[in-house]
Write a structure and sequence with these properties.
The structure is a homodimer. Chain A is an alpha/beta fold. The first copy, chain A, has 14 helices and 13 strands. The radius of gyration of chain A is 21 Å and the shape is globular.
Chain lengths: 392, 392
């Protein structure tokens, strides 16, 4: 039976994640995978979690298993409020920060609405925006011509014959996925200026912010423009991705629509998991674990950079991230990483082709490499294989 | 700052749950609440869950905390497959069965698409359908005129000058929320016949099916028409709602689109929770706990029916459910349960006005009462108060 006649008009725009497809078909443990955004399992606080689940069931009993508030459990919102200095009423818990992206897109984006993104950008954001048939445009384009002409953004745009106002701009300012790059304070201020002048909102996706290995912390966009920013946080990289918990900071008026929307999405986030995350955060265990993770990932990043230096052929360049989980390779123009992928996989190594992070599938000579997942010896083996595949 | 200029066209159609609003404002423990669909906390297998979380972390380690497959973890899909006799490839795990409703609506319903529902029907389904701006129509209307004229459904509809083909029909065949009523085998067969003749799909929402206290089990619609049914299951009433886990049975071609859609919604359901549910199911603990729950709820339903008999004034009638969590009261025409609500709350008792379960807000002389949440003595006290409020 052909079901296509039943599908909504959004379905043909759905974008399938090539990353998820890789995991569907390949046994990760059998290859050297630089593909996923998987944390190192060594950072998971298994002993803490065993203790926390017993503690939470003891402390909260049935309350930890019952339905809960759509905004999230109070204890977790309060723990987040204390940690980040944001009032409780500006905090909504989400069932993963992917849900944060989805629910922001859902309340803001109509088919055809312009949404600005960095290029390359996070695949899951492209998936969500495509599913709402947004008109995805590169932020760089908007920014570039304003600066070059030394006009205000609005003057520049009007000089070019008008524009369609963007609804919002989606950015990952810290250790971006996939590029690993961090926006400077000036770039953040410029984006805020643009958002105020052109009257659009900013969705600041911030899953990696606390994984900084070098350099100086830069203020969040939310702190620069709280009145027009929805800031997305995640427990996936500071606790464990299996919990599927994240949060949104934002103006209460926007959170109110997100709250109503979320009732229809899943009523409320998982309760036991939220209490465990709250205890993990407020007991200080999170900070201890985070310190350990940052140390581990710093050494992995440094190792990855030195391995690339050692094994990659001439003509290959890469970014030097100050944090996060990824760096981005640019290969000689004639190398097509999409075409190369099957050969890499056959040789035992996986990556994600960089073109998947561009809305138009361009930049086929790039790739994203994750440096958090593999341990040191496997990382060296994997990079050696990958370098050989590229050389051939 | 007024944010309305940023909102998508769906936002004005969002429906706020009055049930969730009640919980936002009222301390449940301070009143006699017949409002929510809350299971009795006594049915939560707290000791099992303590044991399960330790066992799962021991058995699966970091795997229970890492990202997982979008379809759900294999062990849980296999446990569900064994229990319900449905092949693994026809099973998608959802982050709550509310997400099941949302994702089905998302892949099927365009603005203006006709979706048939029973009236009254589940508020969360109305919320989801309204959010996609579906044209919600009563199933009863479609069914009624076909039967009366003794024509085929299609002939009857064509005799009335054509029709807009429904995309799908949403029903809760077993112990419906809010009415408590169960569709007979004949009604299910008739719906399947109609779906085949008019070519629409059926979304069968089945959260209460295993909570049967009397009468004979009726086959699921999915078993009658697996090729055009999406069957939604839930762990909320057989395990614990706090886990936010459900599942969908359906044709693989439909599940494939749900799988791609779910990547953008939340990547994957919570992993530790899924492993715990899998162990709970396959160890036999679920069956033991379910038997206990059914016994408890049977006595509560019987008590509720006898209390209504004892305290309610003449002119009030109610349904006699064979299972589930709810029954539905019809009061004399002149009583408006929406207007009555504040007085009831002031007297210390909460219910949900029946009109919230009708797409047009009609039937203001009805109310939904939950009989699972309160214990016996509080239930009697609550019904006494409610009866007095109705009498005034």
């Amino acid at each position: 039976m052909d079901y296509s006649r039943f599908f909504s008009s959004d379905v043909p725009s759905f974008l399938r994640s090539p990353v998820r497809e890789i995991f569907r078909k390949v046994d990760l443990s059998a290859i050297y995978s630089f593909a996923g955004g998987y944390p190192d399992a060594a950072t998971f606080p298994i002993a803490d979690i065993k203790r926390l689940s017993a503690l939470v069931l003891e402390k909260y009993g049935a309350k930890a298993l019952q339905y809960g508030a759509t905004q999230g459990v109070t204890e977790l919102r309060e723990a987040i409020s204390r940690r980040y200095g944001v009032p409780v009423e500006n905090i909504q818990i989400t069932t993963s920060s992917q849900q944060g992206i989805d629910v922001c897109s859902r309340i803001l984006a109509d088919p055809g609405d312009v949404v600005l993104v960095n290029e390359p950008t996070y695949l899951g954001a492209l998936q969500s925006l495509r599913a709402y048939r947004a008109d995805i445009q590169p932020l760089e384009g908007f920014r570039g011509f304003a600066l070059k002409e030394e006009l205000s953004v609005r003057e520049a745009i009007e000089a070019r014959g008008g524009f369609k106002r963007p609804k919002f701009c989606y950015v990952i300012p810290d250790f971006q996925n996939p590029s690993g790059q961090t926006m400077s304070l000036e770039q953040r201020q410029e984006l805020v200026l643009m958002a105020r002048e052109l009257d659009f909102l900013i969705v600041e996706d911030s899953p990696y912010r606390e994984l900084r290995y070098s350099g100086e912390e830069v203020p969040t966009i939310y702190s620069l423009a709280p009145e027009r920013t929805l800031h997305l946080g995640s427990f996936s990289k500071i606790f464990a991705p299996g919990f599927r918990l994240g949060w949104i900071f934002g103006p209460p008026e926007l959170l109110e629509q997100i709250y109503v929307c979320k009732q229809a999405l899943d009523l409320c986030p998982p309760i036991l998991d939220q209490y465990m995350a709250a205890e993990f955060m407020s007991s200080g265990a999170l900070d201890a674990n985070l310190e350990k993770s940052v140390r581990l990932y710093r050494s992995k990043r440094d190792l990855m950079l030195s391995l690339l230096e050692k094994y990659m052929p001439a003509g290959v360049s890469w970014t030097h991230p100050e944090g996060g989980l990824f760096l981005f390779l640019t290969l000689p123009e004639e190398i097509d990483t999409v075409a190369l992928y099957d050969r890499a996989l056959a040789a035992g190594v996986a990556y994600v082709a960089g073109s998947f992070f561009y809305r138009d599938g361009s930049h086929r000579n790039t790739m994203r490499l994750n440096f958090s997942f593999l341990d040191a010896s496997r990382m060296e083996e994997g990079i050696k294989i990958l370098a050989n595949v590229i050389k051939l």
